[in-house]
Specification:
The chain is of the alpha/beta class. It has 2 domains: 2-50 and 362-408, Urease, subunit C, domain 1; 52-356, TIM Barrel (Alpha-Beta Barrel). It is built from 13 helices and 17 strands. Helix 2 (92-108) runs parallel beside helix 3 and helix 12 (338-355) crosses helix 13. It binds fe (ii) ion.
């Protein structure tokens, strides 16, 4: 007797299979499993995927849009300045409540693992206290990984380095940084050496807000690749954003990409936020603010999609749906070939999981029993529709259900209902 049986779903690779679950693990994946189960989800014709993963988010700032006021210029720098006010005005409890509200949305969308940067700038470290509490509160259904993020600069902010170390001592598990916000290029490079050494000493992973600027001279990714190589951190380092690469000279990029590949660095572009923030100083043509996604993938560099922000000082929209992120990324990176569209789905599931080092992820025997049933036939249709999550299972338990996206029609001579899936050909 199994605890849960997900029957007849289509897996992302196109196989049709039942998934049997016992406790918090997948016990079997095979066509037509005959055994009984306490609970059955009928998924024939629906896509069954491992859960969505967001490898780049700011949970301490989420759902604060308009506090203390809106970002009038729409720039990264005004966002940083507004957040600098808000983090001293808001309480730990308010941050916890906003983050938990966001996690409810995430759970309902099948987003079950999140890597969140946590601002370690202020001496009170209320942000860290709040996010450690949230990590515990959601542990039963969302895996929350925290990055110590010196938002105002490791060296530029008073006590920046000391507070980052305090956050790591409190239990934050990834080392973050923001070299392009330090006072000089040299200070940025020095911060990367320091941060990578801290990570190497403590056996931690690294995730850097790297070159989130339109300045083609912002080349901190080169230093990050060098330090990763020097300290043997291959496979444990992420370059987030990398938007300056959009504006760099092609000749220089032809040297840079092999260095990133050799260092085993993964890239996390955040297309929703950067299509909004970048290019604000351009007239026309305006740059897109996205790094070179397909070019990195062609070099074998792992590239995922991150969400970054929902309703906060940097981004005024957002839904906790990683398919929104994939949809925007697909457009801005012009990933229109069917293989590229399918890859965008993989990026917000398996690739993101691999990049942040999730254990026991996937739809195979022995994996953690977390999955999502989507009202779509295949991954490309899922990206097109961003459809209802019919059922979300986390660690063996059904934690959310949604209705299908059918509409009732009242049109002479036409069917009474319409469904957004494409007709079969
Ligand atoms: Fe970010």
């Amino acid at each position: 007797m199994f605890d849960l049986l997900v029957k007849g779903g289509t897996l992302p690779d196109g196989r049709v299979a039942d998934i049997a679950i016992k406790g918090d693990r997948i016990a079997e994946v095979a066509p037509n499993i005959a055994a009984e189960a306490r609970e059955v989800i009928e998924a024939a014709g629906d896509l069954v995927s491992p859960p969505f993963v967001d490898p780049h988010f700011h949970l301490d700032a989420t759902l604060s849009y308009g506090l203390p006021r809106v970002n009038a210029s729409g720039t990264l720098l005004e966002g940083i300045s507004l957040w600098g006010e808000l983090r001293d005005l808001t309480t730990v409890d308010e941050m916890v409540q906003r983050a938990l509200h966001y996690c409810d949305w995430a759970a309902s969308m099948g987003l079950l693992a999140i890597r969140s940067h946590v601002d370690t700038t202020p001496d009170h470290l209320n942000t860290v206290t709040a996010m450690l509490e949230v990590r515990e509160k959601v542990r039963g259904y969302i895996d929350l990984q925290l990055v110590a993020f010196p938002q105002d600069g490791l060296y530029r902010a008073p006590n920046g380095r000391e507070n980052l170390m305090r956050a790591l001592d409190m239990g934050v598990e990834v080392v973050g940084g923001i070299p392009h916000f330090e006072r000089t290029m040299q200070a940025g490079a020095d911060s990367l050496r320091d941060l990578c050494e801290i990570a190497a000493d403590r056996g931690l992973r690294v995730d850097i807000h790297c070159d989130e600027t339109d300045d083609p001279q912002s080349r901190h990714i080169e230093t990050l690749a060098y330090e990763t190589q020097r300290l043997g951190l291959q496979g444990r380092v992420v370059g987030s954003h990398l938007t300056s690469m959009h504006s760099m000279d092609n000749y220089y990029v032809s040297k840079l990409l092999p260095l990133i590949a050799e260092a085993g660095i993964a890239a996390i572009p955040n297309p929703l936020i950067n299509i909004m923030l970048q290019g604000r100083h351009d007239s026309f043509p305006k740059r897109r603010g996205l790094t070179r996604v397909k070019e990195m993938q062609a070099m074998g560099i792992p590239v995922g999609w991150g969400q970054d922000c929902v309703l906060d000082p940097w981004y005024s929209l957002g839904t906790a749906d990683m398919l929104d992120v994939a949809f925007m990324g697909l457009h801005v990176a012009q990933m229109s070939h069917p293989d590229e569209m399918a890859r965008c789905f993989t990026m917000v599931t398996r690739t993101n999981a691999q990049i942040i080092g999730l254990q026991d992820y996937g739809l195979h025997k022995g994996a953690l029993a977390s999955l999502v049933v989507l009202d779509a036939s295949n991954p490309v249709e899922a990206v097109r529709l961003r459809p209802a999550r019919l059922a979300v299972v986390s660690k063996g338990k059904v934690i959310a259900r949604s209705a299908r996206g059918d509409a009732t029609l009242n049109l002479p001579g036409r069917p009474q209902t319409t469904h957004r899936r494409a007709p079969k050909r």
